[in-house]
Amino acid sequence: MLVSSLKKKLAGAEGDFLLHTDVEIARGGITAIAGPSGSGKTTFLRMISGLTTPDEGLLEVDGEVWFRKEPGKKTVVNLKPQQRKAGVVFQGYALFPHMSVLGNMLYASRDMVLAEKLLHMTGLQQLKHVKPGNLSGGQKQRVALCRALMQQPQLLLLDEPLSALDEAMKSVLQDELINVNRELGVTILIVTHDSSEMYKLCDRVLLFDTGRIITDTSPRELFVERATTQKFAFKGEILEILAVDAVSIAVVAIGNNLVEVVIDSDEKETLKAGDIVIVGTKAFNPTVRKIAAKDFDFSRL
User: Residues with Cβ < 8 Å from 9, sequence gap 6 or more?
Assistant: First the structure.
């Protein structure tokens, strides 16, 4: 169980804001950390790993306190990164170029039995003596993942690890992450902007916005069971509403494209030119509705 109630003041594009994480995460799952750029996602992972120090709060993992500081008081506990059982994988790999695949892994731990197991799980057996300069992006990310797992962490923290890979390689590595989670039982937190990745990998999504967790739900509830489904949901502006025969058609600008959507009588009564709307589908029927104050703008992910 991860218990995080941490606070840290951050600088944003629109001024300073407070990152406040008040959340509990059960052992063994895969949780997505999502939200717009600059909302505090990476800082959250860095505070857990010990690479960034919170201003105050509590961080506890499986009953062990990793950080504790009361408001206005001195820090009581702040374990160093190497004292925390947290494996970290960043987008940039951070491999040692002069070491082989196996050498990079054994740098984290000299456990050859575990190294061989991880090489087998990730399909790197034939590449264990190869240096990073001769590996593809997907292979380098596998090595970075294996090195993080060599520490037998309680938490595996992944910061957009697949964003630079092509779709085919993403899919392969997503399958390997699922396998790692099932085989080793490690709790995984992954920062991602990819809704399909969240849906495939994760059992939970924490949606951040300006330092706050504004939504805590399952990927299905977030992307499929909301008012419009994510597989067809776009933000646009109504340019005109036309009456054509017995139907009404809304002309909507979505990016550089113009689309025509048939709207029903109820929608016609509530919509007008200039409205910012969400064009989506529900039960395979197109829908157009105004963006409500409670709606999160998924185009910001």
Answer: 16, 17, 18, 19, 55
Sign for the pseudo-dihedral over CA of 42, 48, 49, 50? positive
Structural domains of the chain ordered from first start: 2-225 (3.40.50.300), 232-281 (2.40.50)
Write out the two tokens for 83: 């004292």
Residue 161: partners with Cβ closer than 8 Å, 6 or more residues away: 89, 90, 91, 141, 144, 145, 173, 190
238-275 in b/e burial notation, b at 16+ Cβ within 10 A?
A: beebeeeeeebbbbbeeeeeeeebebeeebbeebeeeb
Q: What is the DSSP letter of 127?
A: G
DSSP 106: H
- Per-10-residue mean pLDDT for the chain, 301 residues long? 95 91 95 93 96 97 96 95 92 89 95 94 93 92 92 93 82 89 93 88 94 92 61 78 86 83 86 87 65 62 64
For helices 101-108 and 112-121, angle between their N-to-C axes, nearest 10 degrees: 130
Backbone angles phi, psi at 134, to 5 degrees: -105, 15
Angle at 30 between CA 111 and CA 298, to 5 degrees: 140
Cβ neighbours around 138 below 10 Å, total? 17
